[in-house]
Amino acid sequence: xxxxxxPLLKPMLVLEDDPVQQLxxxxxxxxxxxxxxxxxxxQTIDFAVDIxxxxxxxxxxxxxxxxxxSGIDFIMNICANGENTAPIMVLSAWNTLDVIYKALNVxxxxxILKETDDFELMFAIRTMLKGGAIIDPHIAKKIxxxxxxxxxxxxxxxxxxxxxxxxxxxxxxTCVSNGLSSREIxxxxxxxxxxxxxxxxxxxxxxEVNSRTKAIYAxxxxxxxx
Length: 226
Description:
Elements: E1 12-15, H1 19-32, E2 39-42, H2 45-54, E3 59-62, E4 65-66, E5 69-70, H3 71-79, E6 88-92, H4 97-106, E7 110-113, H5 118-129, E8 134-135, H6 137-153, H7 167-177, H8 182-189, H9 193-207, H10 212-221
Helix pairs in contact: 1-5, 2-3, 7-9, 7-10, 8-9
Domain HTH luxR-type: 158-223
Protein name: Response regulator transcription factor
Keywords: DNA-binding, Phosphoprotein
């Protein structure tokens, strides 16, 4: 037998316009120990804001797709002045990462999909009542997948290059890193543009690159320039 006993945060708000979902949520909350008098229900953002203004709400379950706007706007409104300390769990059918990020960014402390079964939803609510933050496993998997892809897309840091440039080549590479053209480098070092270009070609060969940008990058990686 599972023990679902946990300190309950009362009163709480359920912002959900679907009566079927409201009933489902109530049964789960009832299993956790809530009574009808502990729960405020709202089907609109305006009424939910009014409830929060008149009552010391300690916990919120919020849908995102509501008749008078987005639950994200409600969360943003409630958290705007920084005085709200009540944990906010989003219970939504939306599973796109941009919506999830927005909800979490404006103040939600948990995000669960409506497709989650009752046992998992009960566990998620219990976790938040105990001070935790929770993300639906399917969402977490998508976030991890995107994170792993971003790591793959990051080019591996090349090994440090060990090359020997002449003093003149070092001077020219430094000038190149400062954004000077071959003509400007020639004037700076009192040599011809043709000579500068010849030195740059030698620098490319030694650094195994084929452009000024790559030469600057390789020079910094090897410690030749800062």
